[in-house]
Amino acid sequence: RSRNLEEAFAGIDSLIGLSNVKKFLHSLSRNIIWGEEDGAPGNYIFFGPPGMGKTMVARRIGELLGLLGLLRRKVNNVVECRAADLLNGTVRLREAVQNARGGVFFLDEAHQLAEPQNVWGRSVIKRLVTVLEDPEIKRNTCIILAGYPWEMERLLAVDSGLQSRFGGEDSRIVFEDYTAEELLSILDDMASRADRIPE
Questions:
Q1: Is the Cα torsion angle 22, 54, 149, 39 positive or negative in sign?
Q2: For 84-131, what is each residue's pLDDT tens digit?
Q3: Of 54, 31, 53, nearest to 170 (Cα)?
Q4: Three-class DSSP category at 157
Q5: Number of alpha carbons in the 13 Å side-chain half-sphere of residue 35
Q6: pLDDT tens-digit map of 135-148
Q7: H helices within the chain, ranges in order?
Q8: Is the dihedral of CA 47, 48, 51, 53 positive or negative?
Q9: Is pLDDT above 70 for 1?
């Protein structure tokens, strides 16, 4: 397991920027290994602007939690969903979470649930809180919500159930903007791999 973890963190540490994210993942891994967590995979909330790799990091968390034995599903264990799909009825929340059992349920652009113009948003939030209170879900499924910083604070303020599940510092991951130097490094990396990127 230790070698697989080393390889996983080598991949994480090679990412450009995201220093807060890297620190959080290292800390989470240490706490789990030292037995400071309660054995449940936990719930996490990502605060950050678009284009910061939040979906990629959700997949990394799925990989880490699988390697650390907190998830039954070890590989391909992240079910990704957008808030817009829940709001327009394309995806049903409970079915999506059921599909993620034993793995990770990642809800991107979750802040949209709290936007005043989304008439079904409050209903989806109430169903989400119910899901989060399910003992079976809490034991074996990781829930991650992601969205823009201040809009996510508005989402948490909508329902005290969300605040209690995601309000702690140990569940919040802040994605800081890339610096100019980091953006140049990303462009250089993309240019170096241009001939390997499918059209």
A1: negative
A2: 999 988 889 989 999 999 999 999 999 999 998 888 899 999 999 999
A3: 31
A4: helix
A5: 0
A6: 999 899 999 999 99
A7: 2-13, 19-33, 54-67, 83-87, 93-99, 121-132, 135-140, 149-158, 160-166, 180-192
A8: negative
A9: no
